[in-house]
Amino acid sequence: MKFRLTALGALAAAYAFSSTPLAFGADAPAGAWKLNKDNWQKAEGLLPEPVLKRVQAGDYTYTVVPTDSQKFRENFTQAYWAASEANEGKYDLDVETCGLKLKSTGKMPDNVFGQAFPRIDPKDPLAACKVAWNFYLANQIGEGQGATFTLNGIDRNGEFRRIKMWLHTNSYLGRTVAAKENPENLRGTSMSHAMEPADAEGVNILGQSINDWTSQDNIWAYLPQMRRARRVNAATRSDPIAGLDIFSDDLNCYAGKPEYYKWKLVGEQKIFAPIVGPYALEQTKSGDSRYEVNIPYLKGGYETPGNEGAPWQITENLVLVERPAWVLEGESTDPFYNFGKVIMYVDKEMNRIYWKQVHNRAGEYFYTAMCSYHWSKSEDGSFGATTPNMVMGVNDKTDRAALGGRYQGQFIERDFDPKHFSLRALSRLSD
User: Fold this and answer.
1) Quick one: pLDDT at residue 151?
2) Comparing C-alpha atoms, which of 180, 161, 134 is closest to residue 302?
3) How many CA atoms lie less than 13 Å away from 304 in the CB half-sphere?
4) Residue 27 burial (10 A CB sphere; 0-12, 13-18, 19+)
5) Predicted pLDDT at 200
6) Cα–Cα distance between 378 and 362 in angstroms, integer?
7) Residues of the chain with pLDDT under 50
8) Contact 395/245 with Cβ under 8 angstroms?
9) What pLDDT, on a 0 to 100 scale, did the predictor assign at position 28?
10) Contact between 117 and 90 (Cβ < 8 Å)
11) How far apart are CA 295 and CA 287, in angstroms?
12) Residue 204 forms beta bridges with which residues?
C-alpha cells in the first residue's frame, strides 16, 4: 500500500510558507511593507538562515505588517492573562523528565488554564522546559476543535501529491474550563479520517496522550482493507507523511509531550512570525457548545498564475509580524525518533513556535518547518483559542516542500462526547 499509514497516524495523534501580500486592498494597515529579494537584508536576524537565503534567491516574498503589541496580546482573553498571573509559584518541574507538577502535592495536575510559568528567568536551568510547558498548555485552550484540510506535496513543477482528510481533537490538560469527563486520564485525544485519494480513503486514526510523565502516546490505525485496527508506534511522529516533505511532529511545530525532549535555551531574539492576521478572528456560535470560524484561504504559488517564486510559497492572506522569541534546542529521548537536534523559535508572550529547523541523527541540517496560526474569540470576548492553520515543510536537501492545513472553516466544540474518540468509533467510521 503506497500510503504511509504509520506516519499519518502519528499526525492525527499529534495534529508555511512564504507569502506575497495579504489582500488588504484599501484597508492595508499603515506601515505594511513587502520583503523580497531586493531588500532581503531587512530580515537579517529576523528569519532563520535557510529561509532568509530563499528570500534572497527570490523564492519567497512576504508582507510585513506592524502590530499594536497590547492589542496583539489581547488575542488571548483577559481571563487567560489573569489565570497566568494566578499560576505564579503554583507549579514546579520534575528535573529528570521535565514533567509538570503541583508544588503543593508533587503530582501531575488535571487541568492548567493559562501559563504555568508566567515569568521565566533565562538563567534558570529549567527555563527551556518551562517555555515548552507554556507552549504545550496554550495549544489546548481551544478545548475541542475540528477541520477538513489537505496535505499537498509540491516540487519545482507544482503539486505532485494531494491527500484530503478531517481531524478532530479534544484537549483536557490546558482547557479554559475543565472537562466534565476524563475517564481515561488523558491530556488530549484525536480522531482523523482520510477522504482522498483512493489508496488512503477510509483510513482512520485514533490518538491518545496519557496525563503522566513517562508514557508514550497510544495510536491506533483502522485499515479498511483489513477491517481491523492496529497499534502504531508513537516514534512515527518523525516519519514523513505519505512520502511528503512534512512530518507528524510538525503540528504546532512540535506535537509531542514536553517530556519527550531534552530542552535547552540557546538564545533570545526578535523573529518574524507567520500568521493569517495579527488580530483574532470572530467565532460564531452555532450550538450550545459549538462555534464556527471562517479563515481566509492561503493560496499557494502553484495555484497562482504568474507566480515567480517557489511553487510552495503562499501568495495570499499570510503576513509576518515582528515578535520577541525564545530560541530553544530540543532533542528526543526516543532512540527510534529520526530527528537529531531541533531548533525552535517560540513567542515569549503568545507561546507559539513559528519556525523549526531540523537536523538528522548525524547532526546535518536538512529541513525547516514554518508554522502559521490564527487566534479567534467569542463575540463577548470571554472565550478564545489559538489554532494552527498551516505548516509548510521545506526539505533543503531535495528542494521540495509540503503544505499541510489551509482550511477555510473550523469548528470549536467545547463539550465533545469522550465516546467520539474511542476504538469503537474508530472502526465504525468506515462502515
Assistant:
1) 95
2) 161
3) 20
4) exposed
5) 76
6) 47
7) 1-26
8) yes
9) 55
10) no
11) 19
12) 193, 222
- pLDDT value of position 236: 75
Cβ neighbours for 25, distance < 8 A, ≥ 6 positions apart: none
Q: How far is CA 10 from CA 4, 81, 150, 215, 338, in A?
A: 10, 32, 16, 15, 13
Report whether 264 contacts 255 (CB < 8 A). Answer: no
Partners of residue 388 on adjacent β-strands: 373
Q: What confidence score (pLDDT) does residue 431 get?
A: 62
Residues 6+ apart with CB under 8 A from 20: 34, 61, 62, 63, 309, 313, 314, 315, 316
Q: How many CA atoms lie within 13 A of 283 on its CB side?
A: 28
Measured between its terminal Cα atoms, the distance across the chain in Å is 21
Say how far residue 246 (Cα) sits from the centre of its chain: 12
Please name the fold of domain 5-15+17-428: outer membrane lipoprotein receptor (LolB), chain A (2.50.20)
Alpha-carbon radius of gyration of the chain: 20
- Residue length, the chain? 431
Model pLDDT, residue 227: 76
- 418-421: Cβ within 8 A, 24+ apart: 418/170, 418/181, 418/182, 418/183, 418/184, 418/189, 420/168, 420/170, 420/191, 421/168, 421/170, 421/189, 421/190, 421/191, 421/206, 421/208
Calculate the alpha carbon distances from 103 to 5, 91, 93, 108, 216 in Å.
Answer: 41, 5, 9, 10, 24
pLDDT attached to residue 199: 78
Buried b (16+ CB within 10 A) or exposed e, 110-144: ebbbbbbbbebeeeeebbbbbbbbbbbbbbbbbbb
The identity of residue 252, as a single letter, is N
Rounded to 5 degrees, what angle do the CA atoms 317, 160, 395 make?
Answer: 70
Which are the contacts of 181, defined by CB distance < 8 A and separation ≥ 6?
418
What's at 351, amino acid-wise?
Answer: N
